[in-house]
Write a structure and sequence with these properties.
It contains 4 helices and 4 strands, in the order αββαβααβ. By secondary structure, it is an alpha+beta fold.
Length: about 90
């Protein structure tokens, strides 16, 4: 549902002055073999969402940075970083 409503989410949160640099993760097919993780910033989330498959979970905020510690090296290979947000492994 998050990907379906992404434009509405961005519009509402932009009115609330959400920082465009806020980290965002889109996790498609969470906990499945075909899971894909897209890391971006709030200002680029619509473009990033266009690349993600449904179903997906949207995660907003600095907690996105914790994925580096939580994922083992096998799952990190499935992490598709966006140019707007560099990941240093």
């Amino acid at each position: 549902m998050g990907l379906t409503k992404i434009k509405e989410i961005v519009k509402a949160e932009t009115k609330r002055n959400v920082n465009p640099e806020l980290p965002v993760a889109i996790i498609s097919n969470a906990s499945q073999k075909n899971e894909k993780i897209f890391i971006s910033k709030f200002g680029n989330i619509i473009q990033t969402a266009a690349e993600a498959e449904k179903p997906a979970v949207l995660v907003f905020g600095n907690c996105v940075d914790f994925h580096k510690k939580l994922y083992n090296s096998k799952n990190i290979e499935n992490c598709h970083e966006k140019p707007s947000y560099s990941l240093d492994y």
